[in-house]
């Protein structure tokens, strides 16, 4: 289907993607062995070196986070019942913006008879997202396979962060209200097994939020091996909305919302690669306005399901259903 080198970090070799003839899932073949992980994830791997504070980031991203928080109560009230929930003007405006701008919206935190709502972030990195969710009122936990990144996350969340691979037996079944995998599922050796374990850990009616690259994107189809979102050889699996939905349903989880967040950076870096430029420079602050020039095109791609990123919200059916 496609063969390409590692154009991000320069890991030696050419890596192949193939498509399953039965289900359509795209995956790397042969897949990296556990012994090669230190090679394909060098110390310079950016997500394990992110030392920014939780409030630091592009202004549009910070604004989108605030809009999602305001929209969340009304958004989830509409998902869970036929009651439209009129809400206030601010909530309704945020709901419309979150829908129009394809913003991932997470459920609001609450406190019940069994304490604060519990969150597990799988692949929590250095803990920036955990810090955001703790400040939003969640009883938040994390798992991170990279030990140095996990140590950084522990400075934020303490012993709530476990260093090591996500595997069965780490937590009590049925103990989480929300589990998140932000650009993690594509890195796992067996995403189907991981989703089955997630289903065990969620409470009935609990939520799962996933973000992955979209293999059905125009970027991947046109730019091929230059597409930043492929991230070979570190992305073992490459999902479309259909293949991810099938995997979720197999794990007894029900997808309720699929969207394609508007993200110009991936396309910008991919285009620079295609033109022969150093893609690492494309992340610099001097390129912010150049990336934003692609925003209208990326918005159109997102609204047509061909944007570079995909976010899926799924639920574990309650015992009543």
Summarize the SSE layout with pairings.
Blueprint lengths: L1 E4 L8 E6 L6 E3 L8 H4 L18 H22 L8 H12 L10 E2 L2 E2 L1 E5 L5 H8 L3 E6 L2 H11 L3 E3 L12 E7 L8 H11 E12 L4 H6 L13 E2 L2 H10 L3 E6 L4 H11 L13 H5 L2 H9 L5 E7 L6
Parallel strand pairs: 6-7, 6-9, 7-8, 9-10
Antiparallel strand pairs: 1-2, 2-3, 3-11, 4-5, 10-13, 12-13
Helix pairs in contact: 2-3
Q: Key features?
A:
single chain, 321 residues, alpha/beta, seven-stranded mixed sheet, 13 strands
Q: Could you tell me the strand content as a percent range?
A: 15-25%
- Envelope shape: globular
* Overall SS class: alpha/beta
| Spatial strand sequence of the major β-sheet | 8-7-6-9-10-13-12
> How many β-strand stretches?
13
Radius of gyration: 19 Å
Termini Cα gap: 41 Å
Order of helices and strands: EEEHHHEEEHEHEEHEHEHEHHHE
pLDDT average, as an integer? 85
Question: Portion of residues in helices?
Answer: 25-40%
Largest sheet: 7 strands, mixed
Low-confidence blocks of residues: none
Give me the number of helical elements. Answer: 11
Verbal overview:
With 321 residues, this protein is α/β, with parallel strands linked by helices. It is 34% helix and 20% strand. It has eleven helices and 13 strands. The N and C termini lie far apart (41 Å).
């Amino acid at each position: 289907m496609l063969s390409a080198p590692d154009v991000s970090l320069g890991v030696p070799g050419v890596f192949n993607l193939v498509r399953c003839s039965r289900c359509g899932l795209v995956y790397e073949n042969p897949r990296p062995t556990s012994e090669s992980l230190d090679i394909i994830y060098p110390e310079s791997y950016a997500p394990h070196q992110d030392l920014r504070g939780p409030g630091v980031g592009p202004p549009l991203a910070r604004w989108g986070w605030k809009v999602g928080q305001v929209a969340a109560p009304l958004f989830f009230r509409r998902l869970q019942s036929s009651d439209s929930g009129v809400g206030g003007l601010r909530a309704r405006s945020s709901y419309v913006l979150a829908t129009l701008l394809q913003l991932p919206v997470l459920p609001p935190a609450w406190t019940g008879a069994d304490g604060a709502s519990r969150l597990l972030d799988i692949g929590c990195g250095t803990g920036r997202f955990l810090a955001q969710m703790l400040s939003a009122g969640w009883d938040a936990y994390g798992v991170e396979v990279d030990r140095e990144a996990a140590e950084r996350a522990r400075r934020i969340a303490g012993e709530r962060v476990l260093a090591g691979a996500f595997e069965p037996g780490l937590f009590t079944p049925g103990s989480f209200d929300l589990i998140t995998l932000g650009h993690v599922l594509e890195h796992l050796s067996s995403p189907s097994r991981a989703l089955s374990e997630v289903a065990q850990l969620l409470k009935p009616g609990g939520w799962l939020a996933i973000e992955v690259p979209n293999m059905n994107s125009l970027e991947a189809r046109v730019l091929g091996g230059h597409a930043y979102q492929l991230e070979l050889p570190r992305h073992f699996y490459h999902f479309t909305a259909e293949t991810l939905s099938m995997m979720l349903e197999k794990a007894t989880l029900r997808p309720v919302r699929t969207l394609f967040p508007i993200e110009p950076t991936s396309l910008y870096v991919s285009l620079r690669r295609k033109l022969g430029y150093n893609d690492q420079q494309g992340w610099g602050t001097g390129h912010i306005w150049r990336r934003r020039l692609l925003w209208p095109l990326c918005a159109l791609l997102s609204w047509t399901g061909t944007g570079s990123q995909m976010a899926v919200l799924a639920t574990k059916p309650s015992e009543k259903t």
